[in-house]
Amino acid sequence: MINILVAEDEFYIANLIKISLEQAGYNCMLAEDGEQALKLVEEQEFDLVLLDIMMPKIDGYELLEYIRIYKIPAIFITAKSSVSDKVKGLKLGAEDYITKPFDTSELLARIEVVLRRFNKNISYLTVDDIEIDLNSRTVKKNGVVITLTLKEYELLVLFLRNKNIALYRETIYERVWHENFMGDTRTVDLHVQRLRKKMHLENRIVSVYKVGYRYEELKK
Amino acid sequence: MKLKWRIFLVTYIVLIAAYGIFTSVIMSSWLDSMKSAEINSVTQQNTNTVKLFHAYYIVNPTVSDFDNYFEKFKSFTNFNDMYTELSVADDSNFYVSFYGAEFSDIPVNTQQVTVYNAGSSNQIYVTAVTNISEMGQSIYIETTRYISPIFDNYSNHVKKIQMWSAIVLAISTVFILLTVHFISKPLNKLTKLSSEIAQGNRNERIKLNRFEKGIKEINELSESFNHMADCNEKYIAQLKEEYKKQEEFTGSFTHELKTPLTTIIGYSDLLRTYDLPQKERRMYAEYIYKEGKRLELLSIHLLNLLVMNNQEFTLSPMKTEILSYDLKSATAFLPKKYSVNLDFYFEKDVVMCEPSLLKTLIMNLVDNGCKASDNGGRVSVVGKREQGFYTVSVVDHGAGIPEKEIKKITEPFYMVDKSRSRKQGGAGLGLALCSKIALIHGTRLEITSQLGKGTTVSLKLKRADIKSTTEVTNHEI
Description:
The complex is a heterodimer. Chain A is α/β, with parallel strands linked by helices. Chain A contains 8 helices and 12 strands.
């Protein structure tokens, strides 16, 4: 399990990041201010730290200096969006710099990149009998490799990462096709049909009335 | 060309010319006067000799041999360095003196004078000749003086003068160069310094030594230069301060803007992506609503601040009873919301104010007071009539403000307790707004606070003239 520390004084935002990270399969700890974050870093092991800059007690820049001693990669998440602030943050040794307001999918993508750089990313996604090697993009079911198209693959990853939650068609479209939803849901339906057939997931990817689809984990 | 060399050259040329003209005029007039004195004395001597000759002839009328007679006479007349010569005129009108001077025509009983340079060796003579008729003959009587010594003397003098001139010029050269150097040195300093200041060493100033300070213009110039540098530094510091404030404002503003935006976008994204359980959905909607409200407050306050910067307000008289009444009804919901006791006590008077702004100000202060108070705390709004003005105070017995922070709390986006302010939906602009309104009323907020004991914020309003109270109109909220 990947442990991520989020140092953010705004409760709403911290909670939001926590929800998104846990959804994506990371383990997440929250720190309300720099001091608490420092304490947590000293006590526990983390694979990544997400840092706000404007924080009470110890600000993000200062905190980064301490964190670097522990060789933990850090990403700034801040409202400071000027180029000079970004340069300062990156020069101090941050791996990335994300400005608020951010998109959850963008945040996750950037976290993934940084983790991959440090060879810390989740390379396998295993749900039930399905096993996905995220690096080589190979999908196995019961140990048998199944060839999927790019969209089918992304669709499957999305479902597995959000198991047991109903996803709206519109956002499924946006996440997989990376463009704004224009009102045509047939593309999503078609791909879901094909994915079901190829993977034999007719019972697990269920339609939700007026919403979209949900991946249901097998009961153990 | 350098100023130094220009001043030096001009001064030097003028000096030499002045010296040359001066010496040549003086010396030539000296020579002329010497010459004319010589001529006068020779003429006089000649005239006297003529008179003497007439007398001599009366005493010794017998002439056997002219040459012999003349030699005898001459022994009477020869003074040192004046030579008398006599000769009988021949037929020609031409006379050549014994020392070589030539006279073309001397009529009888006339005198002629000439200065004569004999030969190349500068033998200079003054010769006066008179033609007289005596002994039945025309006789020339000549008096001559050798005046070369005068010219020698003259050239000696000129040589001396030239020598002294050279010495004086040499000394004055040194003096001129020194003076020019001392004048141009501070100028060089100035040039160097201004380029250094231009390069960013703004603390550099001109330092003059005692001699340079003695030159009034240089001293004034350097003083005004230093003054200019001081002023510039002050302005730059002011600008920097202003820029820093501006930047802080922008930074805080973007932070205040982006934080609720992040929450709103993030949670709404969750809502539209996942079909979440009812409980979570409600919670996220609540977050979005609260942060939306915060954005709204931020925009209202910001707009107010902007409007107040760009608009002029006129103050009008208003009865304090009405103010009190309006405030009471506008804050009626506060005691319940914060569970505090809120009371108003206004002495009757008429104050000059912009009614809606003043109400905004007092309501903001009351709101702050309520937020700072604990459950069951007490907030009072007191209006007091005083000499010349009317004081309105908002008193709470809540958390109080640390002494160090009091100065800063009227700055936009400054929050003493950020997390507490957040929870209460503050944007950090309330007191900035209040102090601006106070400024519009020609006064400022006076804040006294004790940590843990409470805060009093008061402002002094102008009282209206008694005459104008009749025109007081009723303001409604």
